[in-house]
Amino acid sequence: MAGHIFTSLGPAAFGARPTGERLERIRRSPHFRDGAFQNPVPTRRGSPGAMGKMLRAQKAASGLRRPAGAIPLVTPSPLDYARAPETGLRVSWLGHATVLAELDGRRVLFDPVWSTRCSPSVAFGPARLHAVPVRFADLPALDVVVISHDHYDHLDMATVKALAKRDVEFVVPLGIGAHLERWGVLEHRITELDWHEAGEVAGLTFTATPARHYCNRGARVLGTVLWASWVVAGPRHRVFHSGDSGYFPGFADIGREHGPFDLTMIQAGAYAEAWPEVHLDPEGAVRAHVELDGRLMLPIHWGTFDLAPHAWEEPAERSMAAARAQGSGLVVPRPGALVEPGLVDGLDVEPWWREVAAEPARWASVAVVERESAAAVPAA
Question: What pLDDT, in 10s, does the model give residues 353-373?
Answer without folding.
Answer: 999 998 888 886 565 455 555
